[in-house]
Write a structure and sequence with these properties.
Length: about 325
Amino acid sequence: AAVKHFPIKQGVIVKREVGRVHAVEGVSLAVRRGETLGLVGETGCGKSTLARCVTRLHQLTSGQILFEGQDITGLSRSQVRPYRRRMQMIFQDPYGSLNPRRRVGSIIGDPFAIHGEGERDERKPKVQELMELVGLNPEHYNRFPAEFSGGQRQRIGVARALALKPSLIVADEPVSALDVSIQAQIINLLDDLQQEFGLTYLFISHDLSVVRHVSDRIAVMYLGQVVELADSEELHGRPRHPYTNALLSAASVADPDQAAARQRIVLTGDVPSPVAPPSGCRFHPRCPKAQQICVEQVPALKARSGDPDTHLTACHFPVEPGEDLTRVTATIP
Ligand code: SF4
Ligand code: MG
């Protein structure tokens, strides 16, 4: 995707200091209006927890969420309602998130019902309009989810998310359960809808190659922390964190265009438990560049020497362009 430049306005800011749960900790992320911010990391790194905190499906134990300039952190259920309708989620599993016994028209119309908009018969034309918008046949209003393919079911999820004209859509692995050919269709749909309605996306995926195609900026998470944040092209062209390099090298195996360009970096060891994360840099037990200071000191997420100030990396020894990480040996005593 081409890098787009949007004026920076108030967006969503998530701040979270050390909490009881370490899944998402010390994360401070601003999503700019109209952009797609990709959030990438392995399963269990805290991406979904972060997403649920943003939309207030999860309560933060500490920290702050600002949405369109408002602090919504401490709001009650009813107080948060007007904000919740402006931020909607799309989930990974189009099968699991749709009730099989309900008709598709009524599923898509749920947000109208929940937020008390219009009578049932007034909702039907609105729902059919939404169905058309996402490429579903409005005549299939009375069908059940089982009568739709996987890609169509995800379109149902998208239609439901759009019902209340949100400004932010948090898409949690929206295409991971779909065939590759269908993934592209859904991604194109999301892209078209973004253009048409000026939507802001927080796009979560474990798959860096998917995130690359949709994101203006990308945040890489590891064990509940953002370890690198940069414009999408910048991150791919000059990945600075060893973990980002490892993710990219893994992704390039599936992408023959890149296979020659990057050597595969094999991460050793398991992902440590987020309940008792490693000291210092959390990546140190698996990092080919780790040294003693990495065990002792948490690296700050900041612009590193030679990088634009929009490219932030949390690493004491950022990877230099051309550096061969497959030959580096860690020197922890
Ligand atoms: Fe590796 Fe050290 Fe950088 Fe962490 S701070 S990623 S252990 S080099
Ligand atoms: Mg886009």
